[in-house]
Write a structure and sequence with these properties.
The protein is α/β, with parallel strands linked by helices. It has 15 helices and 15 strands. It is about 40% helix and about 15% strand. The chain binds beta-D-glucopyranose.
Length: about 450
């Protein structure tokens, strides 16, 4: 990596509220779909419930000190809707204590010289809104607007960089279509209207944030390069379908104001006049999460494709379905720049990282070379894409801390910092030291 190119990137680390905060009933917090999901037996692989875990609700000062020690420019965290409006969808009254906790975090970050970058929605929908249809219901986008405005009224004088909706693809495909994540519904392609309502939620909220002084109000999208299992026509067809549903279904409406052809899925998007203008209004940046490519072949099941291991690729702690192929990140970025041209604003890599098997407790620095290699090689891919002309403004490691990996509980560790999930003890890993030194070198 050339130091000069690295110098032009903003560096960040990311977390999300439900994954690190613990303290699920503290200070009047209400329930989200993730509370219901983790409290239902057998949903989470190790039976864990996101508590106590990193317990960042009580240890926010330690997190800020770790960020300051890393030297990151920014910290991407998320705000819990049900801390701010505990009974959203029922009485809707604001919980000042919930806002206070994010105000403390924001003020602490600013005092430490780290720019706060809150995400307003990282998967934790209030339960009453889910009972009313969740993201299948257009009204959820408007309720999100109410909540976002409450947060902007309190923090908008200090927060200038916002993310709106995180990974609508994961919510729609894993949450509503396949039932792997909350709310655990298995609607297959009937889940697709949830895409439109999440994108609409972004489109409604971004102008309001700008009215509150934001210089950035963007969604974060997860993308994967889709590889056909072979060059056979059926495999290419399966790869085309998955590329449509996982990538173009999100990028096309945001960047070109149109959905791709969805006739193969038998679904009509519930578009109302004016929606596509809201959704495709330009954003300052494009938030881009990338972890791995996906290899597919056709399937006879109700879903016409299935994922298979990517031949020849090393894998992360998740095994064969999380192959390590940094070249695919570079290729995807370059393809995107060609596909969307000047409609694509500068990209911020808002998540990139990997889990590897690590001990539950430690008293000394751990992390073998795997995570450092993964991050170094993916950052190299980002720099290569940048050198090839793709506008890229920032790079963010997922994650600052080991945290609650959704249905995988505590079993997958992505952190630059090891966390003992019983005591909350934080121990920086070798990759923390690597990232700190890299940022320092880029700034020298
Ligand atoms: C999500 C994170 C998650 C990470 C690793 C992303 O899909 O935004 O919440 O922990 O990937 O799976």
């Amino acid at each position: 990596m050339t130091a000069e190119t690295a110098r032009s990137l903003h560096f960040s680390a990311a977390t999300s509220a439900f994954q690190i905060e613990g303290a699920r009933t503290a200070d009047g917090r209400g329930r989200s779909i993730w509370d219901d999901f983790v409290d239902t037996p057998r949903n989470v692989i190790d039976g864990s419930t996101a508590e106590p875990g990193p317990d960042s609700f009580h240890r926010v000062d330690e997190d800020i000190a770790l960020l300051a020690g890393l030297g990151v420019d920014r910290y991407r965290f998320s705000i819990s809707w049900t801390r701010v409006i505990p009974e959203a969808g029922m009485n809707g009254s604001v919980n000042e204590a919930g806002l206070d906790c994010y105000e403390r975090l924001v003020d602490g970050l600013l005092a430490a010289g780290v720019t706060p970058e809150p995400t307003l929605y990282h998967w934790d929908l209030p339960v009453a809104l889910e009972a009313a249809g969740g993201w299948l219901n257009r009204d959820t986008a408007h309720r999100f607007g109410d909540y976002a405005e409450v947060v902007a009224d309190r923090l908008g004088d200090r927060v200038r960089h916002w993310y709106t909706i995180n990974e609508p693809a994961s919510t729609s495909l894993q949450g509503y279509a396949l039932g792997e994540l909350a709310p655990g519904r298995s609607l297959l392609f009937e889940a697709l209207p949830t895409v439109h309502h999440q994108l609409l939620a972004h489109g409604l909220v971004a102008p309001m944030l700008r009215d509150h002084g934001a210089v950035q109000a963007a969604p974060t999208l997860n993308h994967s390069l889709i590889l056909p299992a072979t060059e056979a026509e059926e495999d290419l067809g399966a790869a085309g379908l998955l590329d449509t549903i996982m990538n173009r279904l999100f990028a096309d409406p945001l960047l070109s104001g149109r959905y791709p052809d969805l006739s193969a899925f038998g679904v009509q998007m519930p578009i109302v006049d004016g929606d596509m203008d809201l959704i495709s209004a330009p954003n300052e940046v494009y938030g881009f999460n990338y972890y791995n490519p996906i290899t597919v072949r056709p399937s006879a099941g109700p879903v016409p494709f299935e994922m298979v291991p990517t031949p020849g690729a090393p894998v992360t702690g998740f095994g064969p379905m999380w192959p390590i192929r940094p070249d695919t990140m570079r290729d995807f970025l370059i393809d995107m720049a060609h596909r969307y041209g000047s409609a694509l604003p500068p990209i911020v890599i808002t998540e990139n990282g990997a889990s590897f098997p690590e001990p539950e407790t430690t008293t000394t620095e751990i992390d073998y070379s795997d995570r450092i290699d993964y991050l170094n090689d993916h950052l190299g891919a980002v720099i290569d894409a940048k050198s090839a002309g793709v506008r890229i403004d920032g790079y963010t490691v997922w994650s600052l801390l080991d945290n609650f990996e959704w249905a995988d509980g505590w079993s997958q560790r992505f952190g630059l910092v090891h966390v003992d999930m019983h005591t909350g003890t934080r121990t920086p890993k070798a990759s923390y030291r690597w990232y700190r030194d890299l940022i320092a070198a880029a700034r020298s």
